[in-house]
Amino acid sequence: VTNPPIDPFREKVVMSLQCPIGPEDNILKPSSKQVHRLWMNHPILSLSDLEVLKKTTHRGWSTYVLDATFPVADGPPGLAKAIQRLCEEAERESVQHQILVISDRMGGPERVPISSLLILGAIHHHLIETRRRMRVALVIETAEAREVHHICLLLGYGADAICPYLSLELAASLREDSALNATYTDEIIFQNYSQAIQTGIAK
Q1: Number of compact structural domains in the chain
Q2: Which residues form the Glutamate synthase central-N domain (predicted)?
Q3: Residue 134 φ then ψ, to 5°
Q4: CATH number for the domain harbouring residue 48
Q5: pLDDT tens digit string along 13-41?
Q6: pTM for the whole structure
């Protein structure tokens, strides 16, 4: 917090949403490893950006997708078990992978998606407790995040980057139904959406 408060529009020269993702090195021991991360202009990922991250081989890195859903048949008790399972899975996979994608894509009639905020917070703190958090990036692939507030909460709970896939797919569907200008490409839709989110985050 600044006093007087920074105006994100008039003073944008001193504000940035750039975010580095990937393993961090010890800031108390300066080395070239501290800059060997992926630098993004903002934390919002397009559908194609996420696919690139999932397949990245940058500096020998690899990505692992955590399925943040659990079987409907497990009922309410299945939630706690799924959270514990995912925390342990994240800790285990952080040894050999540098990017962990927490995804609710598998949600459906037979699988219940876990709240992205809940599972992100659980994994984030579990990795801190096991001293693995600085070894990996946590990327969220979620249908829940739609508004600026949703994105800000996820960032505050430890997300390095977020792909709000349902919002982007919905916009593309509206274009196909002629509710949006048919000339809007996926890239234009993403740029408009991400710019609105970025403005909200900065404000």
Answers
A1: 1
A2: 1-203
A3: -75, -5
A4: 3.20.20.70
A5: 778 898 889 888 888 888 877 778 888 99
A6: 0.91
